[in-house]
Amino acid sequence: MENTATSVEMLFEKAKKYSETSLDLLALNAVDKTGDVLSSLASRVFIAMAVAMFTLFFNIGISLVIGKLLHEYYLGFLIVSAFYLITATVLWLFKAKLIETPIDNMIVAKLLKSRRTGINLLDKFKEKNNGTI
Questions:
Q1: Hey, CA dihedral for 33, 35, 36, 37, is it positive or negative?
Q2: Which of 9, 18, 104, 107 is packed most tightly, with the most Cβ within 10 A?
């Protein structure tokens, strides 16, 4: 009888250690995935800032050229501003399809990609469910 009690105690002890190890592994995986997503987003933000600076100066140049052609510099700036107003309106109207969905998909793909195997868990899920999420 004592043997059975010792075996049960050992079993509970092993289960406790296993659950603690599993929780530690889960926490480490969460930190790893979070770091991966944040570093990816940070690099994209820096690239976007560089592109924004280029675009700013390029648009000032275009505004000056258009203004010179129209003999009024303010008209060049108004035309370029109107172009960006139209662009911003279109982006706002289709923001879910053009901005939110691709960013969501990138974050989910980063979170579901297994580092050890290189297998994307999102692809496995899509295969299981006939390509639907």
A1: positive
A2: 107
**Token reading at 93:** 């109207």
Q: Where are the domains of the chain?
A: 36-93
3-state secondary structure 1-52: CHHHHHHHHHHHHHHHHHHHHHHHHHHHHHHHHHHHHHHHHHHHHHHHHHHH
Closest to 63 measured CA to CA, from 49, 55, 75 = 75
Cα(45)–Cα(30) distance, integer angstroms: 22
The Cα 118–Cα 114 span in angstroms is 5
Chain center to CA of 45 = 11
CB-CB contact of 77 with 63 (8 Å)? yes
